[in-house]
Amino acid sequence: VNQVAKLTLVSSACDVVSTAYASAKESHPYIRSVCDAAEKGVKSVTEATASCVQPVLTTLEPHVTAASDYASKGLDKLGEKLPLLQKPVEQIISDTKELVSSRVADAKDAVSS
After folding, report:
1. Does residue 47 sit in the same domain as residue 97?
2. N or C: which end of the chain has fewer CB within 10 A?
3. How many domains are there within the chain?
4. Cα(13)–Cα(20) distance, rounded to whole angstroms?
5. Same domain, 95 and 56
6. Residue 13 φ/ψ, nearest 5 degrees
7. Cα angle: 65, vertex 66, 69; to 5 degrees
8. Do both 58 and 23 map to the same domain?
9. Which of 13, 32, 30 is nearest to 22 (CA)?
10. Is the Cβ–Cβ distance between 16 and 89 less than 8 Å?
11. Dihedrals phi, psi of 31, to nearest 5 degrees
C-alpha cells in the first residue's frame, strides 16, 4: 500500500481529491456536518476493529509479508512498463488534451484536403 501511495499518479490524484473534499466541506455547511459525522464514525470503527484484528494479523504476518514482497515486485515491473504512473494527474490531463487536439487537427486537415 505504501508503494502504491508513493506513485506520482496516485499521490497527485489523492491530493486533488483531498483538496476537492476540503473545499466542499469549507463551502457547504451541510456537507461539512455530514462529512464530520462520517469521519467520526470511521475513526470509531477503525479504533474498535484494530484491537480485534491485531491477533489475526499477527498470525497471518508471514503470509502478509510474502504477499507484500510479491506485490512490490509486481508494482516495480508495472512502473517500468507504464511510465504514466510516474506522472502527476495534471500532466496526464494536459498531455491527453494536447494529443486529442493534435488528432482533431490532423483529422480536420485530412477532411479539408
Report:
1. no
2. C
3. 2
4. 11
5. no
6. -65, -40
7. 85
8. yes
9. 32
10. yes
11. -65, -40
Cell numbers placing 103? 488528432
- The letter for the amino acid at 42 is V
Query: Which among 1, 15, 13 has a CA at the least distance from the CA of 71?
Result: 1
75 and 94 in a single domain? The answer is: no
Residue 64 is predicted with a pLDDT of: 87
Q: Which amino acid is at 111?
A: V
Give the pLDDT confidence score for residue 52 in this predicted structure. 86
Contact 12, 90 (CB under 8 A): yes
Domain span at residue 7? 1-81
- The pLDDT-based confidence of 31 (bands split at 50, 70, 90) is very high
Residue 68 sits in the same domain as residue 87? no
Taken as a whole, the chain contains a residue count of 113
